[in-house]
Design a protein that fits this description.
Strand order of the largest sheet: 4-3-2-1-5-6
Largest sheet: 6 strands, parallel
Structural class: alpha/beta
Number of strands: 6
Strand content: 5-15%
Shape: globular
Distance between the termini: 18 Å
Number of helices: 5
């Protein structure tokens, strides 16, 4: 676990709540909370933000990290990809976003040379093992985000859950090290 690394975990666009379509008021509110959470994590000593680079929350978070970097925030973007080419079958818009983010990442970790049955689970473990905190969007839906957030809780990472701010450290204004909801 690295006290200066914060990872992201959240849903692909189709698993986000129905009112959370990109550009909607709910989506814009979530992005504002995400931006604030990244700034607060930075103020708390986190310098490296690690994205798993999946469509949806991972890429939205990475794009905000890049925006904050351009604004002078002293942070950088690390990308953990399951394997090179994982975006090959995505919609063109998402491929383009992925390629643009990956080209600007300060570090890229490719966990496998090609697709393997457990490559995404390995990527999720890598995210948690490298991090001291996790900014997530988790509403209880089963899947990869549930696995990643559960692992982060078991390992004692600070968790900032943008789907349920009442239960997250996000509401505390600062990130308290070593505690999890």
């Amino acid at each position: 676990m690295h006290s200066s690394v914060c990872c992201f975990s959240g849903y692909r666009p189709e698993k986000m709540p129905a009112d959370m379509a990109e550009g909607s008021p709910a989506f814009c509110g979530m992005q504002q909370r995400l931006r604030r959470a990244i700034r607060q994590a930075s103020d708390g000593g986190f310098r490296h933000f690690l994205s798993g680079m999946s469509r949806g929350f991972d890429l939205w978070a990475a794009e905000i990290v890049l925006e904050l970097m351009r604004e002078g925030c002293p942070i950088d973007l690390w990308s953990a990809i399951a394997f090179p080419g994982m975006q090959e079958y995505w919609e063109p818009e998402w491929k383009q976003r992925y390629d643009a983010v990956l080209a600007q990442a300060d570090h890229v970790f490719a966990l496998y040379d090609r697709y393997e049955p457990d490559c995404y689970t390995a990527r999720d473990r890598f995210l948690v093992e490298q991090s001291g905190a996790c900014i997530c969007f988790f509403d209880g839906t089963p899947g990869g985000t549930a696995y990643t957030v559960g692992l982060a809780r078991r390992r004692g990472l600070d968790i900032i859950n943008l789907a349920d701010p009442q239960l997250s450290l996000f509401e505390n204004e600062t990130i308290t090290r070593g505690s999890a909801p």
